[in-house]
Amino acid sequence: MANLMTGKRGLIMGVANDRSIAWGIARALHAEGAELAFSYQGEAFGKRVEPLAASVGSDLMIDVDVTDDASLDAGFAVLKDRWGSLDFVVHAIAFSDKNELTGRFINTSRENFRNSLTISCYSFIDVARRAAELMPQGGSLVTLTYQGSNRVTPFYNVMGVAKAALESSVRYLANDLGPQQIRVNAISPGPMKTLAGAAIGGARKTFKTTEANAPLRANATLEAIGGTAVYLCSDYGACTTGEIVIVDGGYHVLGMLQPENL
Ligand code: NAD
């Protein structure tokens, strides 16, 4: 490895277990020399994250529920006390009621629309505002999205709308924070076998379809997504902001399925 992240410190949000995209990213950033802190959602997740954090040399963990301002404030206060400043934040957080990730989009409830957008989109804005205060020398903010934002993907439903709002937020945040040399980007992986991924109706079929039809005939891997995060968080990404970087084996370029699969 090239030590691309040596001397940089950052917060990883959204590790639930060792299949989480956030964990793949944490591993890649650690391998390049980054010092990491982790946020987790409540005690039960904390127990799972603790050994993972320890395995990459981190004992800096904060309990943050992004729907709770007080927990966000307290978490960032801990980071400020311990480190003083931050170089990057990875936001890999999304939520929607599982019952609405199946069936028809038209049946989206007001309550789940509000929750999904609050947790999956607004939380990134909330985090960006707090993180920017700890980035006097500039930095990098990375979130995770999915192409269901701009192409209809059966059962992705309200999450597609949340991801569209998130991607637009990436561009507005990039413009706001650019003068402070804070870059804001999103990674858009193809389907992954994670807790959140499994909650979406037809997840297995989506996974298989992408694998069978993507130009590379492969799904994204935690390593490939991690490598993209290293690029965006390291100085190699110094002039990239407001971007959605797609890591899906090329699936998004297709106009139709491969002939052998028709
Ligand atoms: P995951 O279940 O491992 O991670 C989701 C995380 O969101 C969990 O750690 C959970 O604790 C956290 N979270 C949910 N609500 C929260 C709240 N109120 N406060 C704090 N944390 C909260 O699943 P994942 O697939 O690794 O998801 C990470 C990101 O990647 C999400 O934004 C997801 O939409 C995105 N993504 C996933 C896929 C996929 O197929 N799995 C594809 C593209 C993008």
From TrEMBL:
Any one Gene Ontology molecular-function term assigned to this protein's record: enoyl-[acyl-carrier-protein] reductase (NADH) activity
EC number: 1.3.1.9
Biological-process GO terms, alphabetical: fatty acid biosynthetic process
Binding site for NAD(+): G14, S20, I21, Q41, D65, V66, I93, K163
Catalysed reaction, written as an equation: a 2,3-saturated acyl-[ACP] + NAD(+) = a (2E)-enoyl-[ACP] + NADH + H(+)
Gene3D superfamilies for this protein: Enoyl acyl carrier protein reductase, NAD(P)-binding Rossmann-like Domain
Pathway: Lipid metabolism; fatty acid biosynthesis
Signal peptide: none
Active site: Y146 (proton acceptor), Y156 (proton acceptor)
One family name in Pfam for this protein: adh_short_C2
Enzyme class: oxidoreductase
Keywords recorded for this protein, A-Z: Fatty acid biosynthesis, Fatty acid metabolism, Lipid biosynthesis, Lipid metabolism, NAD, Oxidoreductase
InterPro entries (UniProt xref): Enoyl-ACP_Rdtase_NADH (IPR014358), NAD(P)-bd_dom_sf (IPR036291), SDR_fam (IPR002347)
Family: Belongs to the short-chain dehydrogenases/reductases (SDR) family. FabI subfamily.
Protein name: Enoyl-[acyl-carrier-protein] reductase [NADH]
